[in-house]
Amino acid sequence: MLPPELTPASQIALTLRAVGGLTTAEIARAFLVPEATMAQRISRARQKIRASGARFTVPSDMNPVLHVLYLIFNEGYTASSGPSLHRAELAREAIRLTRIVHALLPSDGEVAGLLALMLLTDARRPARTRADGSLVPLAEQDRSLWDRALVDEGLALVRWALQHTRVGVYQVQAAIAAVHAEAGTAGQTD
């Protein structure tokens, strides 16, 4: 756990840099701030950690952790820079890390919801771009290209989470993604 004197924004930015491997520019774009501002925020956070002698522990509030994983996934699924619309390695890493958190906290509905959201979203990646690299809107995607194993796993997770835990923001987003994943065509989406 990062020192409590760090703001949640600083904790998330530092974690994205240290754990997620995102560049300062990518983090700045995610926070909608200038790169210089983000560089200063990260530098100050590192200084506070050094000065406090803080040790890392498992946080009692998982929301910042889940938010970091969500941001890493989003940067992988919709790259904010570079020649490609996505950075599959970042999306896969976010899914891998979220799987670890889910294994540690299997009864946490928000962890299950976030993992479901990532799986359902990433399942569409093969159909998301044309040969020239341009984006294919969801309504026009060839659903036969979607990764059915990821869809099935995501659907099972979101169903479990909605039936057994209190509903949270990631579960709601996963439920919306599930509606699209279950429909055979865009026109059949309820």
UniProtKB/TrEMBL annotation:
<dbReference type="Pfam" id="PF08281">
    <property type="entry name" value="Sigma70_r4_2"/>
</dbReference>
<dbReference type="InterPro" id="IPR036388">
    <property type="entry name" value="WH-like_DNA-bd_sf"/>
</dbReference>
<keyword id="KW-0731">Sigma factor</keyword>
<feature type="domain" description="DUF6596">
    <location>
        <begin position="63"/>
        <end position="160"/>
    </location>
</feature>
<comment type="similarity">
    <text>Belongs to the sigma-70 factor family. ECF subfamily.</text>
</comment>
<dbReference type="GO" id="GO:0003677">
    <property type="term" value="F:DNA binding"/>
</dbReference>
<dbReference type="GO" id="GO:0016987">
    <property type="term" value="F:sigma factor activity"/>
</dbReference>
<keyword id="KW-0805">Transcription regulation</keyword>
<keyword id="KW-0804">Transcription</keyword>
<dbReference type="InterPro" id="IPR046531">
    <property type="entry name" value="DUF6596"/>
</dbReference>
<dbReference type="Pfam" id="PF20239">
    <property type="entry name" value="DUF6596"/>
</dbReference>
<dbReference type="InterPro" id="IPR013324">
    <property type="entry name" value="RNA_pol_sigma_r3/r4-like"/>
</dbReference>
<protein>
    <submittedName>
        <fullName>Sigma-70-like protein</fullName>
    </submittedName>
</protein>
<dbReference type="InterPro" id="IPR013249">
    <property type="entry name" value="RNA_pol_sigma70_r4_t2"/>
</dbReference>
<dbReference type="GO" id="GO:0006352">
    <property type="term" value="P:DNA-templated transcription initiation"/>
</dbReference>
<feature type="domain" description="RNA polymerase sigma factor 70 region 4 type 2">
    <location>
        <begin position="5"/>
        <end position="49"/>
    </location>
</feature>
